[in-house]
Amino acid sequence: MSTVPKKTWYKIQWYSDDDTPEERKFILKLDTLLVPYLLVAYWIKHIDQANPSNAYVGGMKEELGFYGNELVTFNTLFSLGVVVGQIPFVFLFTYLPMYWIIPGFFEASFFPAVHYVLGHEINRRGGLFYPGYGLGSMTSSLVASAASAKLERVHGMAGWRWLYIICFAITIPVGILGYFLIPGTLAKPNRIFLNEEELDVARKRLERDGHKVGANLKFHHIKHTVKTSRFCTVVLIDILWKSAGAYKTQGAYLL
Description:
With 255 residues, the protein is mainly α.
């Protein structure tokens, strides 16, 4: 007869049952570094992503003569860059010595870069940083309205142009901060916060879960992945999700 205690749905379990004290200490440190930064980065990311729509209603439409499908084309090209860029960036992550700074500057690399953690930890950390999406959507309009109300024609520039300057001034420091906070990989670790003992704990955890430590991504890995039914199912669900309103901040309804 099994003696494993029954788990209740309302109990929050931060660690796995088989995590050792050393692993739990390492996980806590990793979460302390990762989760707050990713929340802020995701927040700023969605403020930036909503800029075209906010600028469109804040004077960009009239100043640049956007009276047709220009906004839709603009947002489509943005999404195209994200889609096309994700696989190349995932490939480069295993080769570039300082890949963790890339998410601060290239949109396509953000999600692949932050989802490299183990199994159930992806869900936990994702659930904690993903509210940044809602925060970005809520506060982007506040930033835009403040720029239009307070900075219109300051130094001869329209408020919507100041909006881009403000977001630039916020985004670049957050991207640079990621260089110091994101731990990297075992092959190319960020040693500012992680010592050899912690890297050894991480290495053992990866090997225990069947990961090949230090291996680079090859083209045949990507080819094998895209042929699986799981990949096709996820792509289909993602298309339906985005079509149902995930990109509502892009504001095609403003036309």
